[in-house]
Amino acid sequence: MISFILNGRPCQVQANVGENVQALLKRLGYRAVRNSDDGAGFAGSDTILLGGAAVNASLLIAAQLEGAEVVTPESLNSYGELTAVQSAMVDCGVVQSGYNDPALALLITDLLTRIAKPTKAQVIDTLSGIFLRESAYQQVFEAVELARQRLMHSDLQSSPQLNVPDFSGDNRFVGKAVAKPDAVKSIQAEPSFVEDFVEEGSCVLRMLRSPHASAYITSIDTSAAEAVEGVVMIIDHRNCPDVYYTPGGQTAPEPSPLDRRMFAQKMRHYGDRVAAVVAESIEAAEAAMKLIVVEYEVLKPVLSIKEAMADDAPIIHQSLISYSAGAPDNLAEMNKFADPRDGKVHFNFPFGGEPHKNIAARGHGDIGDIEKGFAEADVILERTYQSRQVQQLPPEQHLCYTYMDGDRLVCRAATQVPWHLRRKISKVLGIKQNKIHVKKERVGGGFGSKQDILVEEVCAFATYKTGRAVHFRHNREEEFIATSTRHVAEITVKMGAKKDGSITAFDVNFRFNTGPYGNHCLTVPCNAPAISLPLYPCDNVKFAVTTYYSNIVPTGAYQGYGGPKGNFAIQMIVAEMAYELGIDHLKMVEKTRVHEGQKLELLGKVGEGKAPTSVPTAHSCALGKILARGKQMIDWDSVKTDPKKPNIKIGRGVATMMQKSGIPDIDQANATAKLASDGTLIIHSGGADLGTGLDTVVQKLAAEVMQTELTDVHVVSGDTDHCLFDKGAYASSGTCFSGNAARLAAEDLRRQVLNVASGLMKQPVDNLDLEFPGKVICIDGSEKFLSLEQIAEYAECGTGPGQLHGKGSFITSEFAFPYGANFVEVGVDTDTGEVELRKFYALLDCGTPINPDQALGQIYGASMRAIGHTLFECIKYDEKGRVLNANFRDYGAPMIGDLPTDMRAELIPSDDPVGPYGAKSVSEVGVNAAAPAIASAIHDATGVWIRDWHMTPEKVLKALGKL
After folding, report:
1. Order of strands, sheet of 47-50, starting from the edge strand that comes earlier in the sequence
2. Which is the most buried residue in 90, 502, 546, 862, by most CB within 10 A?
3. Helix, coil or strand: residue 141
4. pLDDT tens figures, 282-308
């Protein structure tokens, strides 16, 4: 028994010997003390105050609390109210997923208690132990200042004084900064995340993983493990479903090979699944895992594209190949060489895969006459650019909680794709979709990785076979070795240009490493040319894409989805060409860039599973304004010297970027809008909000259409029982697709409201309109009106037409492209190779920003992740394919102290006809330009080109000839 003061009250608790304090507090019901890093003390999700000092709860044992004063983030909570710090964080757009935000609020509160007016350096010092992967810290500084003012002047509580521009125009809500409707729930750590709903007595699932990058299991003995008290079931390749699928959460038929079995006899990466232990306690599960005896035939791993291409390369999938349609004529001959231990690979349709040659997918396209284009060139350059493997690092690990509700399986998941998840569970388990209920809970960071189904199908199978509730959560090492990462690429670009900078030809060979499984192996690589080459429209273009299998840890969807790698190559070759021609880089970009209204001919040749039905057009594009503004902000033409430090060389760089807003002709979103009896609205949106503010978008669009208060609109989203189908939160589709579906549903409801009002008011519909706040008026000046409440009451009465509800379904063949640019200034230390980011400006055209404060947060977060990938982050292997840095500390993710000295994001609006109220996407595009902008700035400073990113000091020194 230990005694201590907990949030101001005496507490006595029976603790186990050596019990971890984070686990103890969770056991006591304190949800805000979360575990992101398995007790490494890096992420700060488990921050508490112990005796007035900020510490990580997971680094303490219970005995250390004896007699101490302990404060958790829950100490700030008061029902129905927010503290000055909490409200400032909400109003400044800091809250995205909210996973680490309660801990952040505690730290800021403690800071302002100790220091009335902290400096930026003091804020950085206080927050140096908390990892914010989403918002990049920038808006935190604004929140600290606003909270400071509110602590001094309570009247500022309802007057945020946000430093956010207004894009509303004639709109009441769209384009204005408002608080996210779910932000209060997040910051007060109310039940939101999957882990918050796991009931006591649920079983746990632990995964035994392969110690080899490539091997066959020759024998496995689980008998001793099964005898451990508390073990419920052990699953391995002998008793799992014999079903092949792709983890990639994409619209069916998936443009990825179905090459994954829940458990396989062949291990294809370090950390691959060997067996799952389902037990009544963690202790029983871990004890059982130690008793599973596995023998392997170890094989030589394939770790690089070059190794995968070799004539004598070991084959990753020597599998039996099949097709749903379009099978090659020599399929039978190919299958003569299949090894039964390798299982199967199935293609829904042909997309160039040849597994027996380590090729997962191919694509190609061309326009014009490539030979003619190069013949017209005055200068031809050919360069090869490389990227490295990086991890998404969501603060919340992959996890799932499943249980039976009668004969129905309930899956509470942190997923970006609830409907695709339901379909895959249905397929793997062999049960109907109406027997599966997926509840998308709050997602503590996804960035694409939670588009893939990586834990849910195993958890669901365990529950379905045992009838027991099961909780499966990755530890942080598993996040590195067993979830999606960014594909690795090698891209060779040949470019021709005239002396005046006009581009005459591009010939690009994209080679990708998809790792052991082919989820997204076609679509990610094909996105590389699709959202890079159209930035520089050219009459003569040819590209080829080849994706190779290997034994690196799995790849998949990651924000940018091929764009960062393709854009790195294309932006770099343009920068190098400008240098060769003696043309200012920014002038070269401006001369050759895409313009509004331009047909993007190349995009008619490349798609994500199928080509577009027509040639896309850049309906809106603010790149001209963006480049002019960026040039002004960074003072592009000014002198670049550091007179105090001659070894520091200053350089500036620029890179443009683009993305899509969903996938036309493939994606679909649906929503319903119903009128409650008192005239308020409930919107059921299929969209999956990941913390990006999609529910806010839906709320604002419905309120705008129905001319009612925002607080009178409630959004239900991502629930497969209660909402309509939506393909999910990926491909930057939320605002354009899910938002448009909600807008259409509200417009359908609006028509019904006006029709009912027409009969009640004895007025033609053409003479009626909706007016704020929620009333139908006559536009001819008559004083007659009806409130939405009156109309709803009549609709539900015995003579009414029934409850009014609208439906919206959105599909399109048109593209909406967000555009942007990064402008950077670096200081390169030519003695150490260190690159200091002095200035980083991210300018984005996302059309009409529906939530400008949240849009800025998305830009800051995306930019900082891209900076991390460019300068710090890389998964490292030994020669046997084992990951060497599968933890936060060794991996190198940037923290608050790694922010650029001057970092700014700006929104440059345009008006797009595809998106709702002129909006386009914003969350994903921001990762696509940092690497080439920084690389071109390094060249501007030092005269050397770094074509292999990440750009470490060692690589800079090597390029300078100093290593």
Report:
1. 9-13, 2-6, 69-71, 47-50, 53-56
2. 862
3. helix
4. 999 999 999 999 999 999 999 999 999
Has this prediction a pTM greater than 0.90? yes
* Beta strands 379-386; 488-497: pairing state: antiparallel
Please give the single-letter amino acid code of residue 945. W
Q: What is the mean pLDDT of residues 476-505?
A: 98
Q: Taking Cα atoms as reference points, which of 930, 925, 961, 931 lies closest to residue 949?
A: 931
Mean pLDDT of the chain: 95
Instruction: Give residue 961's region: left, alpha or beta (phi > 0; psi -120 to 50).
Output: left
Rounded Cα gap, residues 572 and 933, in angstroms:
8
- For the cut 70, the answer to whether the pLDDT of residue 254 exceeds it is yes
Residue 279 main-chain phi, psi, to 5 deg: -145, 165
Q: Which residue, chain included where needed, has tokens 């996302």?
A: 846
The more confidently predicted of residues 899 and 611 is 899
Strands 273-279 and 231-235: antiparallel
Output the DSSP codes for 470-506. EEEE--HHHHHHSS-BPPEEEEEEEEEE-TTS-EEEE
- Report whether 547 contacts 526 (CB < 8 A): no
Q: For residue 565, which of 508, 465, 638, 491 has the smallest C-alpha distance?
A: 491
Residue 119 makes CB contacts below 8 A (sequence gap 6+) with none
Q: What gap in Å lies between CA 434 and CA 440, rounded to an integer?
A: 16
Cα three-residue angle 516-521-527, rounded to 5 degrees: 145
CB atoms within 10 A of CB 835: 26
Work out the number of other CB atoms within 10 angstroms of the CB of residue 385: 25
Nearest to 434 by CA among 451, 442, 443, 422: 422
902-907/835-845 β-pairing: parallel
Angstrom distance (rounded) from CA 672 to CA 685 = 7
| DSSP annotation string for 709-732 | -GGGEEEEESBTTTS--B--S-TT
192: which DSSP letter?
-
pLDDT tens column, 185-209: 999 999 999 999 999 999 999 999 9
Q: CA nearest 85: which of 102, 98, 100?
A: 102
Closest CA relative to residue 412, chosen from 398, 400, 425? 400
Do 931 and 520 meet the contact criterion of CB atoms below 8 Å apart?
no
Contact 838, 113 (CB under 8 A): no
Tokens of 57: 């709860």
Q: If you compute the radius of gyration of the chain from its CA atoms, what whole number of angstroms results?
A: 28
CB within 8 Å of 947: residues ≥ 6 apart = 383, 384, 385, 386, 572, 935
User: pLDDT tens digits for 338-380?
Assistant: 999 999 999 999 999 999 999 999 999 999 999 999 999 999 9
Q: Give the tens place of pLDDT for each residue, 16-51.
A: 889 999 999 999 999 999 999 999 999 999 999 999
Helix (H) or strand (E) holding 322: strand 320-323
Residue whose structure tokens are 């004895």: 762
The span from the CA of 185 to the CA of 79, in Å, is 11
Task: Single out the residue of 235, 248, 389 nearest to residue 881, CA to CA.
Answer: 389
The full 3-state SS of 244-308, as one line of letters, equals EECCECCCCCCCCCECEECCCCEECCCCCEEEEEEECCHHHHHHHHHHCEEEEEECCCCCCHHHH
